[in-house]
């Protein structure tokens, strides 16, 4: 029984360290990235993994009943809400006119990027959308 308790404690500690690492990476990305789209990506991806690892550490520590079950419910809630929130932030930024950096564009409704569309006048091969 002592060996099983040691394995459980080490697993809990390892999951907590992994969670803290991913949460730290997300925080650094939030502080370092230049615009809302990059910051949204930095806060949604690694912090989801980090928080899920911390929740799973709670499940391993407390077991399948009580607080452990609450940890599993927290993981499910996290995986359902974070992508939805990130999508809504991205759409709100796009609808309010927040520009991308560099030559990145939104995809056109017909498919493909706006810069990849064939030119309207094919005789000269020039694309009027390029800057």
Characterise this structure.
By secondary structure, this protein is mostly helical. Helix content is 66%, strand content 0%. The protein is built from three helices and no strands. The protein has helices at residues 2-32, 36-62, 67-95. The termini are far apart.
Specify the number of helices: 3
Q: What profile does the largest beta sheet have?
A: none
Oligomer, anyone? single chain
Roughly what percent helix? 55-70%
* Strand coverage percent: under 5%
Morphology: elongated
Task: Indicate the low-confidence ranges by residue numbers.
Answer: 115-128
Average per-residue pLDDT, rounded, comes to: 82
Distance between the termini: 69 Å
Structural class: mainly alpha
Radius of gyration: 22 Å
* H/E element sequence: HHH
Overall number of strands? 0
